[in-house]
Specification:
The protein has 262 residues and is of the alpha+beta class. The protein has three domains: 3-64, no CATH class; 70-143 and 246-250, Thrombin, subunit H; 156-241, Thrombin, subunit H. 20% of the residues lie in helices and 40% in strands. It has six helices and 15 strands. A seven-stranded antiparallel β-sheet has the order 7-6-3-4-5-9-8. The two termini are 28 Å apart.
């Protein structure tokens, strides 16, 4: 459904529930729609129940919510292509934020937003092959998330970020599979092998660069794409795949080029 159809469907279901007194079974992958109208949510993965409760209970696990305090919105301006860039990222070390390279490619000015405040940021690591970037942010005061390389098929958690330049959002997630994919770089100029998770969750524009976290609030991976054929599938670089770049970025201080817009 397009946004207009989703709004109309929401109105119809609410009217049937509130005025007609009907109990309605809704099977839907768009979790923002589910959250707006559902009294109780059951999350299935290929027929297996992985979570149940109110929408708030499903996404409000205390450790997941604590992890959310480390997630930031990334705002950039790329004058060379006359484009505003928006994405997500997360603090993983003092003064350091990890995100995707395509989120900051070609930026001429860059900031992060946390708790309504904006802080200037500089890119100190930029890897267009892996699609990873690290930002240095003076004055950053968020808990540092830890990476967890133990994630695998069947493990649950949440996708955290600021989709569509909106407010903070947490979506239930489950790792479907780990894959080694030969993928193009962010400019489609070359390719390399990436270790990625395919994830059952709702991933929208703006989630790029945000973390896929475990139930314990640790980083299983870095979200970088949504499936173009399945609205309930997204993709994340594994923690093991990005760990070396994270270590390099932790010790990097000098600004680096972010190339052209992707």
């Amino acid at each position: 459904m397009n946004p207009k159809e989703t709004t109309e469907m929401t109105r119809i279901i609410r009217r049937m529930r509130d005025e007609g007194g009907y109990t309605i079974l809704l099977v839907e992958h768009k979790m923002n729609l589910v959250g707006e109208i559902s009294d109780r949510v059951v999350v299935l993965d290929y027929g297996q129940k992985i979570a149940e409760g109110s929408y708030g209970e499903v996404v409000a696990d205390p450790q997941v919510r604590r992890a959310g305090t480390s997630v930031v919105k990334i705002l950039g301006e790329a004058q060379s292509c006359n484009r505003d860039l928006v994405g997500s990222g997360f603090g993983y070390a003092p003064g350091r934020v990890m995100t995707n390279a395509h989120v900051v490619a070609g930026v001429s000015s860059l900031s992060i937003e946390v708790d309504g405040d904006q802080l200037d940021a500089e890119v100190v690591l930029f890897d267009p092959d892996l699609d990873v970037a690290v930002l240095a942010v003076d004055g950053l005061d968020v808990p540092a998330l830890r990476f967890d390389g133990s994630g695998g098929s069947g493990d649950g958690g949440a996708v955290l970020g600021y989709p569509e330049n909106g407010p903070f959002d947490a979506q239930p997630a489950r790792i479907r599979d780990e894959q080694r994919l030969r993928s193009p770089d962010i400019y489609d100029d070359s390719s390399s092998v990436r270790e990625v998770f395919s994830v059952r969750s709702t991933v929208r524009p703006g989630n790029s660069g945000g973390p896929l976290v475990s139930d314990a609030g640790r980083v299983y991976g870095v979200v970088f794409a949504a499936s173009v054929t399945d609205v309930s599938t997204g993709y994340a670089l594994t923690a093991d795949q990005v760990s070396q770049r994270a270590a390099t970025g932790r010790g990097a201080d000098d600004p680096v080029s972010t190339g052209e817009c992707a």
